[in-house]
Fold this sequence. Notes:
The protein is of the alpha/beta class. The protein has helices spanning 14-25, 37-46, 63-67, 96-124, 144-164, 182-191, 203-214; strands at residues 5-8, 29-34, 51-54, 78-81, 127-131, 170-176, 224-227. The chain contains 7 helices and 7 strands, in the order E-H-E-H-E-H-E-H-E-H-E-H-H-E. Helix 4 (96-124) packs parallel to helix 5.
Amino acid sequence: xxxxxxxxxxxxxxxxxxxxxxxxxxxxxxxxxxxxxxxxxxxxxxxxxxxxxxxxxxxxxxxxxxxxxxxxxxxxxxxxxxxxxxxxxxxxxxxxxxxxxxxxxxxxxxxxxxxxxxxxxxxxxxxxxxxxxxxxxxxxxxxxxxxxxxxxxxxxxxxxxxxxxxxxxxxxxxxxxxxxxxxxxxxxxxxxxxxxxxxxxxxxxxxxxxxxxxxxxxxxxxxxxxxxxxxx
Length: 232
C-alpha cells in the first residue's frame, strides 16, 4: 500500500507540529504550507522530503497562485486545517487589522484552501479536518472576533459535510479546549494571567485525536469532536 498524503497547515508549532511529527513517524507523506520562505526552510529541514509550499494564510487571495501547477498532488488523503491566530479584545477596543487577520487566517483561508484541494481529496475519498476551538462553540467576553471566525468555520464545515458526502469525502471539526501551545501562551499574556502548561491539554493529545479521525474505517465518520482539559 502506498503512503498516505496529507496537507497540513500550522506545522511550524503546537498542534500542527505534533500532527506532522506523528504522520511522518508512521511513513505518511506531507504537504506543508509555510507563511514565509524562512519558515519554509525550517520546515524542510525538520521534515526532509516533505513538499513545502510558501503560502501566507493571512493573504488568502494568493493561495490559488501558490498552490497552482504542480504544488498539489493528484490525491490527498486529508487536508488538515490547524493554523490559527488570536487577538483578544472587547468590542469597544477592536482593531480593524486584528479582526481582519483573524477572519482571514481562521476562516477565509481554510475555505479557499479547501476549494483548491477538493479535486485531490475527492480522488482519494479523503478527509477534510478543521481544528476549530472551544470558542467556536461558546463565545466569552473579549473573544468576540476570534469566536466569530471560529463560529463561521463551524458553519462552513457543516455545509461542506453535506456537499461532499456524495463524493465520499468525510468532514470533521475538532474543538480543543485550552491546549499547551505558543498560542495559549499569547492568550495568557493578553489575559494578564500566569501560564502553566501542565494545566492544559497537551498538543500531542489533540494530534492523537486527529489521527484517530483519519484512521476510522470507511463505515464511520466523526462530524464533531470536543476535547477538554482533564481533571488534575
